[in-house]
Design goal:
single chain; mainly beta; 2 domains; two-stranded antiparallel ribbon; two-stranded antiparallel sheet; 29% strand
């Protein structure tokens, strides 16, 4: 839209029609934003549970297109909440004995939008514990130095 140029907005009266019609042209919003109408067309960041990885035409929808992964499959925990432009990342909860079925690209966590994040219960031998790197070691050999971060809270 251009400053000083007028646009007529028509909002259908029927609740069955959820799209707002713009008579002239459509705007494109940056990825990570959805459009809202508050006087003019405007953009706000996606809700916490959704994301928008691509630019967004305002004639498409008024919600960010993708729902974030919950990371709630057996053994999974949230590694990072992501952003309005990206999905959450997940990891397996080594504190409860879970490890990745398939080693993810980043070793410590997986991107559920791009790869398999399945976890399985990995059994360590007697007197062994699982490290944040998903290795079984003797409890006495625990150094506290690992490639993957320590999980401080689990859900």
């Amino acid at each position: 839209m251009h400053v000083g140029q007028e646009y007529n907005m028509r909002v259908p009266r029927s609740r069955e029609h959820k799209k707002t019609i713009l008579d002239e042209q459509y705007n494109m919003l940056l990825n990570g934003y959805k459009f809202i109408i508050r006087g003019n067309i405007d953009g706000i960041e996606c809700e916490k549970n959704r994301f928008q990885p691509i630019k967004f035409w305002t004639n498409g929808s008024n919600d960010c297109i993708l729902e974030k992964t919950n990371c709630n499959e057996p053994g999974q925990v949230i590694h990072d909440e992501g952003s309005s432009k990206s999905d959450r990342t997940c990891r397996c909860d080594y504190t409860r004995g879970f490890a990745f079925v398939t080693r993810p690209k980043q070793d410590c966590f997986c991107n559920p939008s791009l790869e398999d994040c399945s976890c399985f219960m990995k059994t360590c031998s007697k007197f062994q514990v699982m490290t944040p790197d998903y290795n079984c070691i003797k409890a006495n050999d625990w150094t506290g130095i690992f490639k993957c971060p320590v999980i401080t809270t689990t859900m």
